[in-house]
Amino acid sequence: MGFDSSAAAVIPETQGGAMNDASSVYRIWREVRARLRQEYGDLVYAGEIARLRVTEDDQGRVCVLCPTEFGRSWAEDNLGARLRALWAAFEGAARDIVICAEGAAAPARTPAAAPAAAPVPAPAPASPQARAAGRPASATRQNRFTFDTFMVGAANGTAATAAKLIAASPEPQFNPGFFHGDYGVGKTHLLAAIAHAVELGETRRKALYLTAEEFLNGFQSALRARDVQPFKDQVRDCDVLLVDDVHFIAGKARTEDEFLQTLTALIGEGKQVVLASHCPPEELGVCDERLRSVLRGGFACPIQGPDLDLRRKILDCKIAQARVHCPELEVPETVRDFLAARVTTSARELEGVLNNIIVRTAYMSRPVTLDTVSEALSELPIKPERRLTVDDIQRAVAAYFSLTTDDLLSKRRTQSVVRPRHIAMYLAKTLTTRSLPDIGKRFGGRDHSTVIHAVNKIAERLPSDPTLAEDVEAIKRRLRG
């Protein structure tokens, strides 16, 4: 039977006296929440995670309560698997966890088959792990993490190409594949996309996605049960093994040894292994040099933080996904440009900002405008920067190159003026919400095609011209004060 979450007693944050079941649940929730804050960042934590509450029902389930149905959907899609994995790791056992909106009935418990002696803990039904139990990929909530929804740019183009090659190749081209980068750059998305593509491919291979904590927790449970073989059988009974956050395994000698045995067994059988971590293989603090050698023997690919163009692509994709739950959502181009330029940390935080804006505007019947977006940002840990103008940029560029703004607006075509003018147009396009025709008018009445030419020329030269890149970055620092 379900229950009405509004009638359930919320676990209090502090309780005196001896530790009881309720306080134990909250203690674990506090640890889980702290880890989520560390991994997802203060912005997402303040906007989404801090608003979550926990209860425990009479069936022993932990219920994570969200203020709205939209928040529940977001939390399930973005936090569900990680939250469940962390809970299992901190409590030392698998726990039935449901995520629901406050006042809504939680789903009834689904009868489960008797587990093996020491199964790898599955976060929840319809997770990537559930696919290893025979669930079709199309039935999982991770379907939104596919190659179609992975936006590609200069920061992740090589990684996307490698991931698609791994998913499409019946035989491993390189083993293991190792993706590394900071939190929120898309590593988990890529691993889920590989698993999704593998299981829907013509060969119908079997993929198993695990976090390092799920691997660690499953192995430790097997050790406590003094029967490791069921754990080995379950982890190795796949064609493609994908393990996220492998840096959490480093430094745990017995787990490292089991992990090494698992990798060598799968690679020896011609099966594919794909790993992800926040650092490259050579920087992992592993104790076993044999494991380090195996990790370095494949293909290691970095994923960088998204640049402006990629952030805009990601934002467009997230807005399209949000319209599934909020069909009336309309985000003007000027707002999209502003957000892509304003939130520069990671795709994850960009999505968190968008979710906060949606709740504060569309769900409150308010239009999404630059003013309402600035108001929403002011309520988050980051503060909106002073909105730059084309005039600001022209003055900064002119001062940097010892010119006047009249020089930039003039018809002069000498190199000493043309290059700074192109840089100023490039910065005007990437740092403001002004349209191309408007920028052209502000540069002496030039046509928008002239602005396009200048912007493209600077963008193409930046990766290969260190002097130009240094000049552009120095001017940006001046503009930031």
From TrEMBL:
The keyword Cytoplasm applies. Coiled coil: none annotated. Residues 115-138 are annotated as: Disordered. Keywords: ATP-binding, Cytoplasm, DNA replication, DNA-binding, Lipid-binding, Nucleotide-binding. It comes from the Bacteria. Residues 173-309 form the AAA+ ATPase domain. One of its GO terms (molecular function) is ATP binding. Its main location: cytoplasm. Gene3D superfamilies: 1.10.1750.10, 1.10.8.60, 3.30.300.180, P-loop containing nucleotide triphosphate hydrolases. Residues 389-458 form the Chromosomal replication initiator DnaA C-terminal domain. CDD domains: AAA, Bac_DnaA_C. Belongs to the DnaA family. Oligomerizes as a right-handed, spiral filament on DNA at oriC. Domain I is involved in oligomerization and binding regulators, domain II is flexibile and of varying length in different bacteria, domain III forms the AAA+ region, while domain IV binds dsDNA. This is Chromosomal replication initiator protein DnaA. It comes from Marinicauda salina.
